[in-house]
Amino acid sequence: MGILSTFDRIVWAFSILVTFLVLFIIGGGLLVSWYPDPIDARAALIKSYYDVVYVAGMFVSALFIGTFFYLILKFWDRTQPAGLE
Amino acid sequence: MDTLEKLEWATIAGATVLLFGLAVMALPVLDALDNPDYYGEPDYVVKVESGQWYWKFIYPDGSESGELKVKNGEVVRLELESTDVIHSFYVREMGFKVDIIPGKTRIQVISAETPGEYWIQCAEFCGAYHGGMRTKFIIEE
Fold it and tell me: What does pTM read for this prediction?
C-alpha cells in the first residue's frame, strides 16, 4: 500500500472535497457570479468560459489547500504540548 | 514505481489534462473576440474617438454624439481611435475590453441584443480624470 493507507487516502480526498465546498460557498456558490449578466451571444460565450476557469481554479486551490490541511492532520504530533494548556 | 512516483505522475498528468482542456475550450472564445466577422456583415460603421477625457461617436451620416446609441438587432462595426494616450473601451456586460493605441485603428464588431442603458468606461489609466471617462451605451427598442 506504500506510505498511504486506504484510510489516509479517504481522509485526503475528504479534505480536498470539504475545502472545495467551503471555497465554493464563500465564493458565492451558484448565486453570485463575478461577471455581470451578458447582453449578447458573445458575452454569454465569454462568461461561460470565465465560469469554467473560475471553477477549475477553485478545484486546483482546493487540491493545494486541502492537501495542506491533510498534512497537518496526519503529521500533527499530538504528543507535544500545543502551548494552550 | 512507488507511491510517490505515482503521485508525481498523476500530478503531471492531471495538470496537463486540465490546462489542455482549458486551452481547447478557450479557442472558440478567442475566435469570438478577435474575429471581426463573428456577427456577420455589419449594418454600419461608427467611428469612436477617445481622448483625455471624453468619448466621441461619429455616425455614418456625419452626426456626432457623446453617447453610443444603437437600435436593437443591429450589428455595428466600431472603429476606435485615440487622439492622445492609450485608452480602453470597456462595456462590462459585453465581457471584453479593447485597448485603443494612439496612431492605430482598432476594430470591434458589436451586436445589440438586449435593449437598455449600459456604461462605457475607459479601462486603461489615462490621467487625472480617467475615472470620469465614461459615457452611456444605449440600445434602443
Answer: 0.78
